[in-house]
């Protein structure tokens, strides 16, 4: 029952230079300094020669839960599903659901007589949860013949895991798993970021690594990855609730070239994005995807646009981490927020 729209300011950070190509990154946010800060990180990366992004994995997951009368029967199905000799048959059944959905693997976990089946598959340029769900349903229907005592309790049993912090996503990945890195020249660290390589490396160790460990963080070994992920997601029509697992990120910093320059990387195992379907079809969000050059399905290679979008997300996170950590190291955080994130105007009256 749509009744209208909620307006969210959109800014552009960039150009972000990744793998030799420039991107203007749209960010929808009400946080005043976020776009400016990410933009500063983009500048530092660009002046240092750009960032390199590498795709490690690409596979969406869905994990139904089924129940048997005994734990032994649950174990029998687990052994059947994880037997390599049965994979080709299961893949044929699964792949009937879509032109792009291709089964990659099945990982099972038992809790008594309950069995959780974590299916992973490629999804082309779609984020792909509906696609993988259809394939899973096909397999469950197929299994019912040989396992008539199998009771399907739910198509999703939370072993997927969607929209919740979960170690399985942090370890196994979900959606796109990406690592993005850059070497920031020492002169750029001093002139643009207003700090030093030594200070950044030490703060990253104390804050992002040790501090997060002290807090018992799960996938939260970063400064504010979710800030950038959510802003880009809203601008480009992604599911903003998936920022939970998509923001899983570990930020690493190291002094290189005899301590003169900074090597920074972000490793993000579960970026869930698509360039077709869902909110990507709305006018404003479609325009933002078009700005990035990833709108719709790739004509050259299925999934290329969504993988490129994941690379941009990781690159923007890299820029955001670099800039915020520099502001913290230089003691500029509160000062910058007081200067740029306060308004003496009544925005609601101005807009009306």
TrEMBL record:
Its EC number is 1.1.1.34. Keywords: Endoplasmic reticulum, Isoprene biosynthesis, Membrane, NADP, Oxidoreductase. Gene3D superfamilies: 3-hydroxy-3-methylglutaryl-coenzyme A Reductase, Chain A, domain 2 (3.90.770.10), Hydroxymethylglutaryl-CoA reductase, class I/II, NAD/NADP-binding domain (3.30.70.420). It is found in: Endoplasmic reticulum membrane. It comes from the Eukaryota. It is an enzyme of class 1 (oxidoreductase). It holds the Pfam family HMG-CoA_red. It is a multi-pass membrane protein. PROSITE patterns: HMG_COA_REDUCTASE_1 (PS00066), HMG_COA_REDUCTASE_2 (PS00318), HMG_COA_REDUCTASE_3 (PS01192), HMG_COA_REDUCTASE_4 (PS50065). GO terms for molecular function: hydroxymethylglutaryl-CoA reductase (NADPH) activity. Pathway: Metabolic intermediate biosynthesis; (R)-mevalonate biosynthesis; (R)-mevalonate from acetyl-CoA: step 3/3. GO terms for biological process: coenzyme A metabolic process; isoprenoid biosynthetic process; sterol biosynthetic process. GO terms for cellular component: endoplasmic reticulum membrane; peroxisomal membrane. It catalyses: (R)-mevalonate + 2 NADP(+) + CoA = (3S)-3-hydroxy-3-methylglutaryl-CoA + 2 NADPH + 2 H(+). Belongs to the HMG-CoA reductase family. NCBIfam families: HMG_CoA_R_NADP (TIGR00533). This is 3-hydroxy-3-methylglutaryl coenzyme A reductase. It comes from Gossypium aridum. The lineage of its organism: Eukaryota, Viridiplantae, Streptophyta, Embryophyta, Tracheophyta.
């Amino acid at each position: 029952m749509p009744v209208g729209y909620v307006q969210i300011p959109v800014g552009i950070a960039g150009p972000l230079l990744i793998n030799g190509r420039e991107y203007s990154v749209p960010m929808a946010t009400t946080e005043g300094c976020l776009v400016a800060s990410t933009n500063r990180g983009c500048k530092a990366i660009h002046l240092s020669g750009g960032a390199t992004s590498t795709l490690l994995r690409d596979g969406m997951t869905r994990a139904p839960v089924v129940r048997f009368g005994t734990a032994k029967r649950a174990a029998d199905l687990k052994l059947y599903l994880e037997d390599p000799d049965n994979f080709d048959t299961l893949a044929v059944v699964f792949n009937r659901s879509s032109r792009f959905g291709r089964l990659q693997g099945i990982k099972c976990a038992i809790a008594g007589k309950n069995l959780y089946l974590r299916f992973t598959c490629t999804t082309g340029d779609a984020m792909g949860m509906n696609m993988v769900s259809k394939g899973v349903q096909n397999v469950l229907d197929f299994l019912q013949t040989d396992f008539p005592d199998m009771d399907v309790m739910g198509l999703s049993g939370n072993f997927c895991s969607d929209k919740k912090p979960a170690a399985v996503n942090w370890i196994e990945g979900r959606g796109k798993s990406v690592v993005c890195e850059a070497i920031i020249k020492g002169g750029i660290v001093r002139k643009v970021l207003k700090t030093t390589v030594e200070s950044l490396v030490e703060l990253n160790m104390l804050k992002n690594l040790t501090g997060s460990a002290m807090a018992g963080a799960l996938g939260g070994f970063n400064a504010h990855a979710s800030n950038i992920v959510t802003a880009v997601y809203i601008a480009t029509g992604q599911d903003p609730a998936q920022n939970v697992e998509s923001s899983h990120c570990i930020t690493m910093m190291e002094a290189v070239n005899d301590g003169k320059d900074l090597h920074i990387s972000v490793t993000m195992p579960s970026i869930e994005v698509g360039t077709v379907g869902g909110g990507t079809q709305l006018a404003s969000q479609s325009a933002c995807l078009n700005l990035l050059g990833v709108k719709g399905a790739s004509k050259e290679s299925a999934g290329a646009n969504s993988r490129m979008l994941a690379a941009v997300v990781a690159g923007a996170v890299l820029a955001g981490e670099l800039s915020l950590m520099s502001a913290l190291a230089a003691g500029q955080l509160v000062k910058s927020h007081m200067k740029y994130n306060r308004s003496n105007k009544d925005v609601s009256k101005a807009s009306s």
